[in-house]
C-alpha cells in the first residue's frame, strides 16, 4: 500500500532542504516552514538557482527547533550561524556578500513562496519514479540522492509503481482529490522543470544533454490512461498540488497511507 516515506522542506527557497518525520499544514495550505523565506534582488526578482548558478556552492543546515540556519560555502571551513528571526540583518549581509549585490530576504509564514502560485501545496513524487529517472543516466552515472536533490520534491511515496503520481492530475482546469494520512490534497498538474535539474547540486556543473535524455525517456515512460494533453512538452516531473486551507493544523507523518 502506498505510504509517505520522505518529507523534505526548504526553509530558504533555493537552498538545501531538511528532512522531517512530520510536518504541520500551515494556515495558507502549505507545508509549514517550506519556502518560508526567499531571496530577492534590487529589482524584486527571485535570487534562485535558475538565475544564479553559484547558489549551488552554498550549503545550508537547519536546527528548526531553535530557528537556526548554518551556512557554509562549498570547500571552505568557516560556518556562519544565524537565528532566522533575530539575526535577519546579519543573514542578509552574509547573502549580499556572497552574491555581490544587495539581497532582500522576505518571509511568508502562511504559504511560503511556491514556484507555482496556482498550486501552493506540496509537490509529490514516488520513490519508484526517482529510481526510474536515475536509471536513465548511466554514463556518467547520477546517484539516486543526486536525482532527489536535483528535482527538489517535498513528499515521496513508497510502495508504488513508477510514475504513480501521473494519475493524480486531470484536464486543465480540473483537479484530482487524494489523501495522505488525514490531509486532503488536490492534484493539479505535472511540474514543469527548469535548468536546475541539469546541474550537479554541489558544483553547478551541467550534465551533458540532461534535458534531451530526460524528455526522450519521459515520453517513452508515460503510463497508460493518463491525460497526455497536460504534456505540451515532456520536461515535467512530480505532481503539483493544492491543499485546502481547512486542512490547516493537520499533521503529515512518515508512514501515512496515500490513497
Walk me through this protein's architecture.
The protein has 259 residues and is of the alpha+beta class. The relative contact order is 0.21. It has helices at 88-99, 127-135, 144-151, 210-221, and strands at residues 3-9, 18-20, 22-24, 37-40, 58-63, 68-73, 79-83, 104-107, 124-126, 155-158, 176-180, 183-192, 236-242, 251-253. The protein is globular and about 50 Å long. The longest helix has 12 residues, at 88-99. It is 16% helix and 27% strand. The mean pLDDT is 97. Strands 2-1-10-9 form a four-stranded mixed beta sheet. The protein has a three-stranded antiparallel beta sheet with strand order 5-6-7, with helices on one face. Strands 11-12-13 form a three-stranded antiparallel beta sheet, with no helix packed on it. The chain has four helices and 14 strands.
Count up the helices.
Answer: 4
Q: How many runs of DSSP E, i.e. beta strands?
A: 14
Radius of gyration: 18 Å
Strand content: 25-35%
Shape: globular
| Content-based structural category | alpha+beta
Helix content: 10-25%
Element pattern in H and E: EEEEEEEHEEHHEEEHEE
pLDDT averaged residue by residue = 97
Task: Report strand order across the widest sheet.
Answer: 2-1-10-9
In a few lines, what is going on in this structure?
The chain is α+β, with helices and mostly antiparallel strands and 259 residues long. The protein is 16% helix and 27% strand. The protein is built from four helices and 14 strands.
Amino acid at each position: 500500500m502506498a505510504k509517505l516515506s520522505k518529507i523534505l522542506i526548504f526553509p530558504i527557497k533555493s537552498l538545501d532542504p531538511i528532512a522531517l518525520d512530520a510536518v504541520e499544514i500551515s494556515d495558507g495550505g502549505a507545508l509549514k516552514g517550506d519556502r518560508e523565506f526567499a531571496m530577492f534582488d534590487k529589482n524584486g526578482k527571485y535570487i534562485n538557482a535558475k538565475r544564479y548558478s553559484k547558489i549551488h556552492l552554498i550549503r545550508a543546515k537547519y536546527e528548526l527547533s531553535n530557528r537556526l540556519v548554518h551556512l557554509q560555502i562549498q570547500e571552505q571551513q568557516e560556518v556562519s550561524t544565524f537565528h532566522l528571526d533575530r539575526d535577519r540583518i546579519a543573514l542578509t549581509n552574509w547573502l549580499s556578500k556572497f552574491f555581490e549585490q544587495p539581497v532582500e530576504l522576505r518571509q511568508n509564514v502562511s504559504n511560503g513562496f511556491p514556484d507555482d502560485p496556482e498550486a501552493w501545496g506540496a509537490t509529490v513524487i514516488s520513490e519508484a519514479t526517482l529510481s526510474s529517472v536515475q536509471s536513465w543516466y548511466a554514463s556518467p552515472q547520477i546517484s539516486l540522492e543526486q536525482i532527489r536533490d536535483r528535482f527538489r520534491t517535498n513528499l515521496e511515496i513508497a510502495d508504488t509503481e513508477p510514475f504513480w503520481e501521473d494519475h493524480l492530475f486531470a484536464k486543465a482546469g480540473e483537479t484530482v482529490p487524494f489523501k495522505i494520512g488525514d490531509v486532503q490534497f488536490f492534484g493539479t498538474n505535472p511540474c514543469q522543470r527548469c535548468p536546475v535539474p541539469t546541474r550537479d547540486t554541489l558544483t553547478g556543473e551541467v550534465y551533458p544533454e540532461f534535458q534531451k535524455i530526460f524528455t526522450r525517456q519521459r515520453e517513452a515512460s508515460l503510463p497508460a490512461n493518463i491525460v497526455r494533453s497536460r504534456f505540451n512538452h515532456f520536461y515535467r516531473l512530480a505532481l503539483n498540488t493544492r491543499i485546502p486551507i481547512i486542512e490547516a493544523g493537520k499533521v503529515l507523518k512518515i508512514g501515512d497511507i496515500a490513497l
